[in-house]
Amino acid sequence: MGELADEWSSKGRQNVWGLVPQVVELQSEGGAAGTVHGALQAGALATTFTASQGLLLMIPNLYKIAGELTAFTMHVTARTIATHALSIFGDHSDVMACRQTGVAMLSSGNVQECHDLALISTAASLRSRVPFMHFFDGFRTSHEVGKIEELTDVDLRSMLPDELIAAHRRRGLTPDQPVIRGTAQNPDTFFQAREAANGYYDACPRIVRETMGAFAAMTGRVYELFEYAGHPEAERVIVIMGSGAETARDTAAALMAKGEKVGVLTVRLFRPFSIKDMVRVLPKTVQSIAVLDRTKEPGAVGEPLYLDVLTAITEARTTGQFAGPMPLICGGRYGLGSKEFTPAMVKAVFDELDKEQPKTHFTVGIVDDVTGLSLTVDDAFDLDSTRPSVVRAVFFGLGSDGTVGANKNSIKIIGEDTDNFAQGYFVYDSKKSGAITISHLRFGPKPIRAPYLIRRASFVACHQYDFLDKYDVLELAEPGAVFLLNAPYAPDDVWQHLSREVQTEIVEKQLKVYVIDGYAVARDVGMGNRINTIMQTCFFAISGVLPRDEAISKIKDAIKKTYGKRGDAIVQANYKAVDGTLANLHEVKIPAAVTATRRMPAAVSEDAPDFVKRVTAVMLANKGDLLPVSAFPVDGTWPLGTTKWEKRNIATDIPVWDDVLCIQCNKCAMVCPHAAIRAKVYPADQLAGAPHTFKAIDFKGNEFPGQKYTIQVAPEDCTGCSLCVAVCPAKDKSNPKHKAIDMVEQRPLRDAERDNFAFFLNLPEADRTLVKPDVKNTQFLEPLFEFSGACAGCGETPYLKLITQLFGDRALIANATGCSSIYGGNLPTTPYTTNRDGRGPAWANSLFEDNAEFGLGMRLAVDHHHEEAVALTGALAGKGVVPFALAGALLEFAEPTEAGIRAQRSRVSDLRRVLEGRSDVESKRLFGLAEYLVKKSVWIVGGDGWAYDIGYGGLDHVLSLGRNLNIVVLDTEVYSNTGGQQSKSTPMGASAKFAVSGKATGKKDLGMMAMAYRNVYVAKVAFGAKDAQTLKAFQEAEAYPGTSLIIAYSHCIAHGYDMAFGLDQQKAAVDSGHWPLFRYDPRRTDEGQPPLVLDSGPAKITLDKYTRGESRYRMVEQAHPERYKALLEHAQSDVNARQALYEELAGKKA
Amino acid sequence: MDLTTTYLGLTLPHPLMPGASPLAHDLDAVRRLEDAGAAAIVMHSLFEEQITRDEAGMMHQMLVHDDSNAEALSYFPAVDDFAFGPDRYLEQVRAVKAAVKVPVIGSLNGTTAEGWLSCAHQIQQAGADALELNFYHVATNPLETGVEVEARLLETVRAIKTHITIPVAVKVSPFYSSMSHLALELEAAGADGLVLFNRFYQPDIDPEMLEPVPKLQLSTPDELLLRLRWLAILSGRTRLSLAATGGVHSGIDAVKAIMAGAHAVQMTAALLHHGPARLTTTLRELRQWLMEHEYRSLAQAQGSMSLEKSPNPEAFERGNYMRILQTWQPKVGNR
Q1: CA dist A66 to A76, A132, A273, A599, Å?
Q2: Which of these, A468, A490, A573, A496, lies nearest to A528 by C-alpha position?
Q3: What is the domain partition of chain B in residue ranges?
Q4: Cα separation of A1079 and A1088, whole Å?
């Protein structure tokens, strides 16, 4: 919503009053709320959009805005609050955390309502002066694509009369008629003054009702504060809010048709809660009520809506407003974190109410085998299959193959160009590379109100052949459904390649199967590997949703619309793709019986740990919904090192090592974002039993004389980004195209390299105490961060991998929310892992805004444990429990060299042996704390959104404290995780969301700000430009006894170019002076040296030579050439000035 | 002095104009070129790849991650408003056309008779008075014969002519087996002019890194000689307008090009190097020279040194080669 508003604003699109609203991005939602509060106080109409954690940051201002009776409407996509884990998905836990603030809360349940209630809430707020929070379900409603009737500007104007807006403005602060607000009140007056606004809240429900009435008169769409649908003499009623109400009403109607006396009461106006309006629509016949809450309040009597309804009915009966007998009122939770809420679940709730003794508190939609709260759901119950006129299509695709985009386009075609209604909802996984998407599309002659995923599909498309071996793609296909498969096989050949499971489903369900080699068609028509248009054409050709010829002509129209601006060539290529599709789409003859003997492979290998097999594997097979409560850790604690069991096989090409050409520099291992190419040195005798294709050569260096050397790729974990090839300096002198690493097709190599990698992993690790601290040697250290779901070619992860190689076995990591917390900690599998001793990084994510403080807390705890261990060691030595020599050695330990750490760990083992079995309090305590005698390394990791913006206040404070912390900013110069919004790190001239026409201000110099403290170690690094400097900075930062800050250039997909060139762009960034490399070490001051050392020289190229390679700049240049020129010139002069300043600080100039 | 010339059917006050170059990117520079006296403005080229591959590729990199992740459905502001491909170019044609009074010649650079050519029509609609097709073809495909390359060129010209009604000049390299025959074929295919010659950017080699190094070297006056020869050979034998481009740095260079048969003389390197004012100087020198040598008009000199009219035509033919070799003496000191 915010991004669209910003785009409109930047295009100068006027609102209904002929004005162009200003859109301003703040550093956090807290900042946005404060700004909105100020704008409202100064008499403007202002709004804001947020969700989840962001909404929590707005709460203090919501109290203020409400307390001041300010007309204001905000729109919230209700999303989950992070507790035991983060979930970006939908439920009401965020909005429910605001119910006490004094804002009115209006809930909408589908896309049309969302559109309508946005206006109703705005109008009602202007009239009532009570601020409104209009909310709707995150993802289920906010991300659903559907056909709606749009309000006109005339509608908007008529609902928002000028006099109310003028009244709002008159209440604004102005020195021409000054008043004071925000006073401080004493015990004598605060209470009464707080009660003074009651009348406004009392009037609010009436005003909303009247506003809804006016709206209905204008549009014909009728809304009520509480809406009852169902049997007029219902005995069982569900009370519910949000998109779930649609499902409940729909199901109740189906049950009523079978003679059941059921009904659904939908709550629209949740605050102020009008008892009168609610009981007015509640049938007097009701005997039992289930109040469903999409949130959880642990420890409460029940969830908020339940409590309100219970109280309301009790009070209404007491006061005579409700004449019926007291019904049984139960409270249930459903749909947390976007858990599906289906008709079958609604039926389960009604069935429960029908029982002799229903559960008064229950959950629905999960299996709770621990506290037994969950209801049993009959999955066979379904409404979709009762509506044969609705086409229900499910598409399995990859994020990168354009499936979702094509489906959105299909919805447009059908929704806009025909009388049919369309609905689309898209399920994504959380991987940033090789992500799977599942599209759920419904098309039909009547409006579609089904806010749940398709469970019985009349059409299933699998756009990626490999999915058939990973997921139960045909599970959703109903008998007789059409199955479209993109496969690299001919129609008469494909059958024999299918697994037994897939063949069985096809035969048993009598599916009609069509096959196309979409990638071959795409290649033939010059579309590369974009199969979106091709698969879309297939869908229209065989689904029967539109007559074939009409569909094809509409697709072509849509192509013209979409690509026409880009020139006829792209249009023609797409037309060719459409025609090529029809010629290559074939029905497959299905034999009468299953013929395959091959079984679908297991999700994880037999060698996986029990937990991975029981839990992780189920999630990997896309069946996590089936896991019962007992399968899960109770507190969000998960084991490390699970990515290694998820063999994703997403790379088409993988690196192949030429052992003859290789110069053993290990740069490939250094730059690999996924730890999928590794180097090892090991004794020659370890080669016994090596697979016959395993390559090994003599190690050339003198560090490990006589040993063997191998570069090995993890074929099934590599993402095929080719950064290793880009960095490889070893070229064949006769054929420089060939390097010591080349990309080669993965499939033929997969099996052999899998065995080679397994053998490689079992080779011994290099002795850490012998590893020299240079780029080459440190790559012999085992990475404890591997195979993350980060983008192919990610510019952040090589830094994290390096941290784990250098310090991972003694590191704690506090990770700010963002890309690094998603690829670092998003289930089903996580990349941080352990070494053979079981040690590895202990990782946690708290929030987005508090990460520096979170890490500081870890440091305080670790220091405290250390101090206590030191004190206990001394005390127990004094008592003769711990031998003096051992205690002395333990307490003398200072230098954290690898050898020192190994010796100290050995001493700690000795100490624990001494203490083991002792029963005195001090010994028992020291036994538990002994490991803290080994120095721990605390790392604070996050992106520029955290460090420059939302978390800057905390970061600044932590910098000022000087504690021994290592802070790494993975600087992509934009909010990458949330989709490319500008941060204060975004450079001048680059386009980003909220800086569409190029950021007008320069990048904040965070390094300089940190240097101003004078006691902080600061480094700016770019591994693609100077890896040795990067390494040195990480080593120095860790060794520095105070706070260290490393700002790390991270190339990113949000820069808009092929990540294979990430290292080139890093180099260009440094060479142009955009990203100067430096290390600022306060200790150098003691030696009489300037603390700042510049590691990159004066600019070698102009700034434009760097910027021209990235779309984020190019798009500004294309759209606004004059503006771009001016911005670039300004940016260039900034670069020059900064370089001069740095040189001066580094003592390079007089 | 009457310097009037007719090029591509356009009557021009004199033959000097900027060649296709980045100068036309900048409206200020375009205005300064007009002020300096340019008889026409030749736009920078719109490349086939701009329309088909490169820009599409860039867009692909921006869009390829869309709709992959629940938290970020896109990574860039909506790109609909950004002019990729021909849009930006067409806007520039319109802007240049609005900024100057002299004729504007659009420029397309490409080598296939494919869909991208349809934007020739858009260039015409944007106001271009003529179009220059730069057939920048590097023969790297060993399976394609010279005949096929020429056929492709002719097909491209014919295709362009179906899209537009404004005159079309074809800019080619000197690397054809029979330039004279090709000129006739081009004429038959509908071309209105021939621009001699385009220059290939020749990459250097970095022997340390084993990498080719892209290099752009501006033309020098030495390169004029090749143009003079072919202008002289073609002059009077074709109805095509002829333009010289490459190596004209001064008035006397222009005189030679005119004498060899050029109807228009394009300057690029000299203008990039010295700025638009260089055109004024060159024009003054041209006028001066003709006056000093008592020419009545430019037309009088046009083609006077062509193969047809030259007093010593074999200088442009084989004889020249033999004579020069035989009379060549090493410089003193080199013996």
Answers
A1: 16, 9, 16, 62
A2: A573
A3: 5-309
A4: 16
**A78 close to A108: Cβ distance less than 8 angstroms:** no
Interface of A with B in 735-794 (CB under 8 A): 736, 791
Distance, CA of A1031 to CA of A805 (rounded, Å): 11
Query: Cα distance from A290 to chain B (closest Cα, Å)?
Result: 32
CATH top class, domain B5-309: alpha beta
> With contact defined as beta carbons under 8 Å apart, do B24 and B41 qualify?
yes
As a whole number of angstroms, the distance between CA B280 and CA B35 comes to 9
CA pair distance A252, A381, nearest whole angstrom: 13
Could you tell me if B208 lies within 8 Å of chain A, comparing CB atoms? no
B66 to A791: CB separation less than 8 angstroms, yes or no: no
> In this structure, is residue A613 part of a structural domain?
no
CB contact under 8 A, A996 and B77: yes
Q: Domain count of chain A?
A: 6
The predicted-structure confidence for A743-783, as pLDDT tens digits, reads as follows 999 999 999 999 999 999 999 999 999 999 999 999 999 99
Residues of B in contact with A408 (CB under 8 A): 67
Decide which of A193, A218, A243 is a domain's last residue: A218
Q: Does A400 touch chain B (CB under 8 A)?
A: yes
Residue A532 lies inside a defined structural domain of this protein: yes
Among A807, A648, A806, residue whose Cα is nearest residue A717: A648
A988 and A1091 share one domain = yes
Q: Name B16's bridge partners.
A: B265
pTM of the predicted protein model:
0.92
Q: What is the pLDDT of residue B112?
A: 73
Kindly compute the dihedral angle of the four CA atoms of residues A312, A313, A315, A321, in this order, to the nearest 10 degrees: 110
Exposure string of B262-299, with b = 16+ CB inside 10 Å and e = fewer, is bbbbbbbbbbbeeebebbeebbebbbebbeeeebeebe
A183–chain B nearest CA distance, Å = 41
Query: Residues of B with CB below 8 A from A138's CB?
Result: none
Token duo for residue B278: 């260089």
- What residue type is A204 in one-letter code? C
Cα B198 → chain centroid: 6
- Considering the domain architecture, whether residues A557 and A419 belong to the same structural domain is answered as yes
Gap between the Cα atoms of A1080 and A1085, Å rounded: 10
Q: Are B185 and B214 in contact (CB under 8 A)?
A: no
Mean model confidence pLDDT for chain A: 96
Inter-residue contact A1025 to A1075 (CB < 8 Å): yes
- When CB atoms are compared, the residue of A89, A403, A568 closest to B115 is A568
Asked if the Cβ–Cβ distance from B65 to A791 is below 8 Å, we say yes
- In chain A, positions 1049-1078, which contact chain B (CB-CB < 8 Å)? 1053-1054, 1056-1058
Instruction: Say how far apart CA B146 and CA B134 lie, in whole Å.
Output: 18
What's the pLDDT at A460?
Answer: 98
Q: Tokens in use for A1100?
A: 């070698």
Cβ separation A405–B76 shorter than 8 A: no
Chain B: nearest CA to A1117, how far in angstroms?
Answer: 9
> Distances from the Cα of B237 to the Cαs of A834, B309, B313, B319, in angstroms?
82, 11, 14, 21
CATH code, domain with A229: 3.40.50.920
Which residues of chain A have a CB within 8 Å of the CB of B99? Answer: none
Q: What is the CATH number of the domain that holds A188?
A: 3.40.50.970
Q: Which domain holds residue A474?
A: 388-587
Averaged pLDDT for residues A537-554:
91
- Establish whether the linkage from the previous residue to A828 is cis, with ω within 30° of 0: yes
Does B53 touch chain A if contact means CB atoms closer than 8 Å?
A: no
pLDDT in tens, A429-445: 889 988 899 999 999 99
